[in-house]
């Protein structure tokens, strides 16, 4: 009489394959909204001149004025840093001929402040002191991972809820522990665009800047088995 070994029995191998082919795949999403507690402003000075030395000198003088003005607002020096310094050669084209027009010097500073209500004051102070270009303003929070972990926890609960709904509809029993989770992070921090020409006029009161709420979103894909 022939006996199959338990480890190689077709009946024993077929069950796990059938079990793991019973998959429910869902996407879970979690969101956390919070008031921004930090503003990151990128602005600076762009100068142009037929002379490179002149463009550099005028730029350096204006940036120094901007930095000194920001320091007068009690912004720590370490929270003011250069993020871009660029020299570009500019040309005119006449009848297909390239003619040197001059030079453009761009010096951008990143200013980080923890009092978001002063964002408009910082922008106006910089512009009134010589800044003529505002690249971006974005809002964030320190310890972003704390908020993300909260969103991630909600995303896992959301995924399980969806999987349970599908299982109940199918009339099957869900195994709550997922066999696979793929994690993706998305933080929504839309910058507020500004036109430099609108900021050079000066204002009697600080430019009103409303940061709104920061939304931290966690997205994951989870696979569950059922029987």
UniProtKB/TrEMBL annotation:
<dbReference type="Pfam" id="PF04402">
    <property type="entry name" value="SIMPL"/>
</dbReference>
<dbReference type="InterPro" id="IPR052022">
    <property type="entry name" value="26kDa_periplasmic_antigen"/>
</dbReference>
<dbReference type="InterPro" id="IPR007497">
    <property type="entry name" value="SIMPL/DUF541"/>
</dbReference>
<protein>
    <submittedName>
        <fullName>SIMPL domain-containing protein</fullName>
    </submittedName>
</protein>
